[in-house]
Structures are given as structure tokens and as C-alpha cells.
């Protein structure tokens, strides 16, 4: 029988790469959310888009949910295709397809969420889910930032930045 301490250490060691991947995806989305939301807001100033956004803004909660979910779900096949290409060894095309779908999805998600958030938060289950996602994001970040590899990377980054400043001065 396997030693329970070994099993716990193994799960902890194997779990970190997945937490790191989740943190990278969350960071990418957080990093893109604001600038892409602003870009989509500017596009929303076009007359036709402005009229569509006005309709979305007035949508009742369940219709707002559909307006938010349908564009994001429609990009899922592209993300899966990117992962499939990666699995087949097509690194560049797989990453290109996946990241393109991620960027487009984040842009649409940021804008549509900004338009529908008041209606979506009227759905109690959605408000709980949103709060849970925020807590999950904070947990993942805290876990990654507490890992020795993260702390080492931060020290290296700070050292390089300080060294470059010294060279400049």
C-alpha cells in the first residue's frame, strides 16, 4: 500500500503545474479585460452597434444571460481546435488559434459583461457564481504567489530590474 504522506506530497507536486496554468490563464484574462473592454466600448460608439448595445443593456436577466453566454460558448470550438492542434504537435498554429479565440472571447466577454452585469447580478445563482469565481481567482493567485518558484522568480525579476537601472544611471 502507498504511504499516505507520499501520496499527499505527490498530489501537491502535481497540483502546482495545474494551479500555475490556471493562474496564467486568469492573469491573461485579467490583463486583457480592461484594454479589450475599452476597445469594444469604442467600437460600440458606431451607430448600429450603439443601438444593439442599448437593447442588450435593457434586457431582462435571462435574456442578458443569453447575450453574455452565446458569444462566449460559440468560441469554445475554436479553443478546442487550438488544443487539438497542440496535441497533434502543431505548436504555432495551435497556440495561434487558442490565443486568438481567447482574446476575442475576452473582448466580447468584457464588453457584454459591462452591459449586462446589473441584470446578471439579479440572478442569485449567477451572483453567487461570480463571487465564487472571484474567490477562486484570489485563491489561485495566493497559491502561486506563495510557491517558492514564484518567490524566486520575483527576486530574479527585481534583481534584473535593479541591475538594469544601475546600468542606466
TrEMBL record:
Can you say what this protein is called? Answer: Transmembrane protein
Alphabetized UniProt keyword annotations = Membrane, Transmembrane, Transmembrane helix
The UniProt transmembrane annotation reads 10-28, 62-85, 92-113
Whether Membrane counts among this entry's keywords is yes
Amino acid at each position: 500500500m502507498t504511504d499516505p504522506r507520499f501520496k499527499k506530497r505527490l498530489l501537491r507536486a502535481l497540483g502546482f503545474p495545474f494551479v500555475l496554468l490556471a493562474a496564467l490563464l486568469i492573469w491573461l484574462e485579467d490583463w486583457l479585460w480592461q484594454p479589450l473592454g475599452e476597445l469594444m466600448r469604442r467600437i460600440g460608439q458606431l451607430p448600429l452597434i450603439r443601438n444593439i448595445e442599448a437593447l442588450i443593456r435593457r434586457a431582462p436577466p435571462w435574456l442578458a444571460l443569453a447575450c453574455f453566454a452565446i458569444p462566449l460558448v460559440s468560441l469554445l470550438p475554436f479553443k478546442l481546435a487550438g488544443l487539438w492542434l497542440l496535441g497533434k504537435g502543431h505548436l504555432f498554429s495551435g497556440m495561434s488559434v487558442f490565443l486568438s479565440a481567447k482574446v476575442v472571447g475576452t473582448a466580447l466577454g468584457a464588453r457584454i459583461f459591462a452591459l449586462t452585469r446589473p441584470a446578471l447580478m439579479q440572478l442569485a445563482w449567477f451572483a453567487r457564481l461570480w463571487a465564487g469565481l472571484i474567490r477562486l481567482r484570489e485563491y489561485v493567485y495566493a497559491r502561486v504567489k506563495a510557491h517558492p518558484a514564484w518567490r524566486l522568480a520575483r527576486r530574479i525579476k527585481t534583481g534584473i530590474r535593479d541591475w538594469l537601472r544601475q546600468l542606466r544611471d
